[in-house]
Amino acid sequence: MGTVAMLRAVGIGTGDEVIVPAYGNVEVAEAVELAGARPVFADIDPDTYCLDPSSVEAGVSGRTAGIIAIHRFGQPADVARLREIGGRRGLLVLEHGESDQSHDGLAQRRAYAGYLNARLSGVRTPLGSDRHSYQQYVVRVPGNGRPDRDAFAHAVRARGIDCRVPVKTPVHRLPRFRRDVALPETERAADETLALPLSASLSRRDLHKVVSACNALGGLLQPAF
């Protein structure tokens, strides 16, 4: 059953609000609107990139009917805390995204992530967790905002590494969903995050190439114009 159908099935619709993250997954906000409700954006945890339960609770109003938790990059959302909030406030909690830890290549991805975590410098590596399946290996390029990350990505690609920006614009900054809301961790993550290649098909030589390309940059670069 799709998100729209699930929302409608439990009676969420016109006049209701549903709390969702603004860091990626515009289709979730779209589904809330298609069900007739209004998406309300909460901030994320800076380590997991999933909904921050404290921000969620702060966003609950008399019209709030549900919360949609999105598992991000293979890191599961804190569903237990969100369900505790939902139970106290009478809210439906739905999950979106892959949280299964048993799929193929999991042990290999975790081993490769450990290799990168131990060797990368100049970037902030993902928070280590035995619950993280590393569907994407996302690092941060800290600095003064997006130009640093984008310049770093350009330089890494020039060295033959296929990296990508996982979330270019938070949903609450898109014209259709623009909201005057403070989501500092969401905006910081959108400015700093970069997904580096990580799959079970990579060789140790491939991983060494990733490390060499990133470490050769020495951390922050000058803004790209």
Automatic annotation (TrEMBL):
Q: Name one GO molecular function term.
A: pyridoxal phosphate binding
Q: Which cofactor does it need?
A: pyridoxal 5'-phosphate
| Pfam families to which the protein is assigned, alphabetical | DegT_DnrJ_EryC1
Q: Does the keyword Nucleus apply?
A: no
What InterPro entries does this protein map onto?
DegT/StrS_aminotransferase, PyrdxlP-dep_Trfase, PyrdxlP-dep_Trfase_major, PyrdxlP-dep_Trfase_small
Q: Which UniProt keywords apply?
A: Aminotransferase, Pyridoxal phosphate, Transferase
Transmembrane stretches, start-end: none
- Choose any GO biological process term that the UniProt entry carries and state it: polysaccharide biosynthetic process
Name the domain of life this protein comes from: Bacteria
Q: Which family does it belong to?
A: Belongs to the DegT/DnrJ/EryC1 family. L-glutamine:2-deoxy-scyllo-inosose/scyllo-inosose aminotransferase subfamily.
The protein here is known as: DegT/DnrJ/EryC1/StrS aminotransferase
Give the originating organism: Streptomyces antnestii
